[in-house]
Amino acid sequence: MWGFFCVSSSFTQAISILRSVSFMSDVLCPRRYSVEDEPSNLDEMPLMMSEDGFENDESDYQTLPRARVNQRRRGLGWFLLGGWKVLCGSCCDCLAHVCRRKKELKARTVWLGCPEKCEEKYPKNAIKNQKYNIFTFVPGVLYQQFKFFLNLYFLVVACSQFVPSLKIGYLYTYWAPLGFVLVVTMVREAVDEVRRYRRDKEMNSQLYSKLTVRGKTQVKSSDIQVGDLIIVDKVILVSCSCFIRTDQLDGETDWKLKVAVICTQRLPAVGDLFSISAYVYAQRPQLDIHSFEGNFTREDTDPQVIESLSIENTLWASTVVASGTVIGVVIYTGKETRSVLNTSNAKNKVGLLDLELNRLTKALFLAQVVLSIVMVAVQGFVGPWFRNLFRFVVLFSYIIPISLRVNLDMGKSAYGWMIMKDENIPGTVVRTSTIPEELGRLVYLLTDKTGTLTQNEMVFKRLHLGTVSYGTDTMDEIQNHIVQSYAQVTSQPSNGSASGSTPSRKTQTPGPKVRKSVSSRIHEAVKAIALCHNVTPVYESHAIVNGETESAEADQDFSDDNRTYQASSPDEVELVRWTQSVGLTLVNRDLTSLQLRTPSGQMLSFHILQIFPFTSESKRMGIIVREESTGDIAFYMKGADVAMASIVQYNDWLEEECGNMAREGLRTLVVAKKSLSEEQYQDFENRYNQAKLSIHDRGLKVTAVVESLEREMELLCLTGVEDQLQADVRPTLELLRNAGIKINKHKPHTTGGIKVLSVLAVNLSCVALEQISSRGEAHLELNAFRRKHDCALVISGDSLEVCLRYYEHEFVELACQCPAVVCCRCSPTQKAQIVTLLKQHTANRTCAIGDGGNDVSMIQAADCGIGIEGKEGKQASLAADFSITQFKHIGRLLMVHGRNSYKRSAALGQFVMHRGMIISTMQAVFSSVFYFASVPLYQGFLMVGYATMYTMFPVFSLVLDQDVKPEMALLYPELYKDLTKGRSLSFKTFLIWVLVSVYQGGILMYSALVLFEAEFVHVVAISFTALILTELLMVALTIRTWHWLMVVAEFFSLGCYLASLAFLNEYFDLSFITTWPFLWKVSAITLVSCLPLYIIKYLKRKFSPPSYSKLSS
What we know:
The chain is built from 38 helices and 35 strands.
């Protein structure tokens, strides 16, 4: 968990690989725009103005962001309806901010191997993911439970039973259920907390190799300090450099090349690092993982040696050294590392169904209080009416059953088990068991592209030279041209040089005034592709003796079969593989040289003078090389068409062909070349080195120097590489569209977005917004797009940030109207921001799916996060609520399991509330008949048995019910649209259940009072038995598809009740319940309470059947 800084890679002893902690969230810092240069008159500019000017129109101000026009009035009503929560939350936040003021992050000077010289105290390098400690565990868990209205209500009712005047029944009838819920919750939290503690202890106790004056020692991760020299190594493959994997930091699986400080490479031995006086000046800790600025200074030389440092010299925490050996000085530790700064704390997600049930329980509580007030009012508020009021509240407390939370939690666990046991989606893991119903309520799906929708495997498809294009079926022609080209070169006299030498440049290319032939153009294009990259050939070692590697020549096999290519981009690897397939092979590369092998076996050697790596801002990379045989210097560059169009010489085909390839779904790269004289290069090198040593505005100065070279370059070719889609991605996306789910994709390349859109809808047109850099441009582009209808939107990450900065509400509104949106080159922070904006502006449920560490923030911000275990590691999978192995599984996960989970939980929740409302209605009728006395109808074990063994199993068996077969749900995804409307659990369905409960409760109680003859105990026996039978029959009425376990549950509960009658002498007259009058009275009451409901259900299905029943028939 530290930020590495490469100092030396000369240490060659092999030790075990060191892995830093992989955090649950990694995000990038979006590029910030300056507003000082914006016109001041745009501050009040409405969005929908004419494109001819920005004149003001009063009618247009209605389109301003809601933050400016929708200023809510805050009064007493606002305070009572929830404003008090906002005010309390604001006060708590302010208090927490005052108590936890963050230390200002500053730039630092770090001396090599001398932590004691640090001027400031830096954070400890320890990980702590625990939520509680030994003192805060019990209060914290209790707060998390009782902050919800339902549990707090039960706590107040249970505590009221300690007051003698308010006591009704036995204490265990109130405290036993509440205690059971709390114990289960505490045990679950304690187990999770112990697991987190063990994981933290394991990571903090990992041993690392630390270099000291006395040699190498072992040190714990938590004891590492800023300034320590840490050794990380694997088998040596490349001198003065190493490869790292960053899949857990930025989601990229390809190896990245890191280089060491040149100054320290000249030291004879590793121990000499302590004999020099050197320090590193590093910028302050920041979020951006793709940039670093600093200087390395050695003071004990005359003159001082100052070397500029960049991102190529760093190894961040959460990265892994894949090959090579590194001795790094620790720059950042603990909370100041890039991975921790980019980590967002995971929030406890609450499902929409839980929020809806919470609102319904509040409505029930209000009805309970009103009913209690009516009871006291009818009495005339005589005597201790306030005590009677509270007793009535306690009597009617069963209207909100505590078993509601227990049944729902158990049901959610059952849904998770069913999902993981589904053989049609093998490997699926449910990591968050509290929100399975969210899978059935989704409206927006936000997905990553590379690795999620695609296989992340590149295939070279097209080479375009302007006048001629080559595809996969004509690659043999390119190979013939390359073979002939180098055959002609070798046939030329070489002045007695060896056969492997390369002839002069004049023999390779004709003069500039002569039109080049197709063969020479192909030769130049393939050569440029083989040179312009950051790919390194790697040869695996085989002979290792006593843990030490022998010489590279003896250990390594340099054959084509043993060679693999590593680079930070899979596109570059595929391009180099393609040049190998046509005859020009990259066989060796280090920091300063590069060798190519021609089809005839010749070796072409090039000296690497400068490399300009690819960045998201420049969208291109370049390299300057000198051919050793001729001394010619050439500047090669490749990049995106939007960046290269203004750099290359004028042409009339580049834009058109890029569009054609984009429509085919190919990732395009433009390749260009510029020849340099020795004088031109020396002038450039002086200016470039001077810019790199700047401390302030280094990036701007370096960019300006490089751009001075990027002028009038010769356009060589256009390449097209395809990232193939995963299996069944097209039908799965079509399934989701038909289900009414709107899809937003985050992807690194604009051109590939066209292919994804073609997958989403064949007949769908798309609009790509131009590059937006100011508010005025955003205004014009959004106005133009508003006039489009039924169009998909394609926008880059930079343009997205500008639009959200000035027109957040308007942009989200437009995006929500689109059938699909593709966001290109988005940072992880922007992905999470889009999810948050959709939740805020639409109030609909969102789902995010990804496979890399850079998708974690988006997954955690969404209402439902789905991770895919892919080539980019398991970080997204571990951070998600649900983990799947392939994207196509999301169709069944949503259409089948999402539907069943939501439908079953809605039915289960409403039936549990019905079970409480019917007995509360009976209590109200009983009290009203007996002079409004606050006396309980059923006491002791009867109430406990009613909520548990008598009715629990049939009611819980509703988790096995289904309205539509899985095959039907997948065949007609349009059924999913009804779920998003929330009709299965709404105030309408709730009121229907209330009416049913009032009807049945009234019938049961009045009929029992009318039919009883002698003793009051007969009323209890008749009404309670009829109540149990009614509940069992109502479960049968609710079930739509019978399961054998449902039948078992029905008969088991009935058997338990009949068997318990023999032991309930305190409540029932055994001599009466065995008589014929008891049987016919119970049967008659039960028939009257249930038969009308069966008739109504039959008539409704006959004349107004639901949509799913029509399909089933």
